[in-house]
Write a structure and sequence with these properties.
This protein has helices spanning 2-29, 75-100, 112-148, 164-187, 196-219; strands spanning 34-37, 44-48, 52-57, 61-66, 161-162. It is an alpha+beta fold.
Length: 220
């Protein structure tokens, strides 16, 4: 029963982390970090991401333009790019590392201590990846709120608002953190018991040794 619980918890942790990693990659490239609705022209909406700005028109559709210069971007967008790349890379590495540490894999069945260390390392990588997503998303959201309520900007000037990518990024970050917590909790719990096949082999060896000792006593 303990082995089943450990396996289910490990798979749940990896599944949550995988979901968070996919959503973080999606957040990185979606051009919907900020939305701008023009009151004067309701048929035209502007969106901004880390890599490009898009305008959505009912007649033309979506047209996007990449940012010309990295250095010309605001500080929050420059650092957000770096952190999102870091999150995507660490999340992928965490999936590889924790995958080899799962009890359901027959690779390294006799090296339980190594599997435990791989799970802990994978959980830590997921933690860092989750934080690396939450920081840029929250920073951009904070700057958006500041600019929205900035009294120095005339009221006639349109204001940027939260885009869908920010909410996806928050969900991705918390999924990575929760997945990492599950993996570390399972890895730091009681040691995984041997698989049923190992029990059968051990029992067969014990019976074989017992029969040998019994035959030896009979011969004596």
């Amino acid at each position: 029963m303990a082995l089943v619980f450990r396996t289910v918890a490990q798979l749940a942790g990896v599944s949550l982390s995988l979901l968070g990693w996919i959503l973080s990659c999606l957040t990185n490239y979606l051009p919907h970090w900020k939305n701008l609705n023009l009151d004067l022209n309701e048929m035209e909406n502007w969106t901004m991401g880390l890599w490009q700005t898009c305008v959505i028109q009912e007649e033309v559709g979506m047209q996007c333009k990449d940012f010309d210069s990295f250095l010309a971007l605001p500080a929050e967008l420059r650092i957000s790019r770096i952190l999102m790349f870091l999150s995507n890379g660490l999340g992928f590495l965490g999936l590889l590392v924790s995958g080899f540490g799962l009890d359901c894999l027959r690779i390294g069945e006799r090296q339980q201590e190594l599997k435990k260390r791989l799970l802990i390392l994978g959980g830590i990588l997921f933690w860092i990846a989750g934080i690396a997503v939450l920081v840029p998303v929250s920073w951009v959201a904070h700057r958006t709120v500041q600019e929205f309520w900035d009294e120095t900007i005339p009221e006639i000037v349109p204001r940027w608002e939260f885009g869908e990518a920010l909410f996806i990024g928050w969900f991705a970050g918390f999924s990575l953190l929760l997945g990492g917590c599950l993996l570390n909790c399972v890895a730091c719990s009681t040691q995984a018991p041997l698989a049923s096949g190992h029990y059968a082999v051990a029992e067969t060896q014990y019976l074989h040794q017992h029969l040998e000792m019994k035959n030896t006593h009979l011969k004596i």
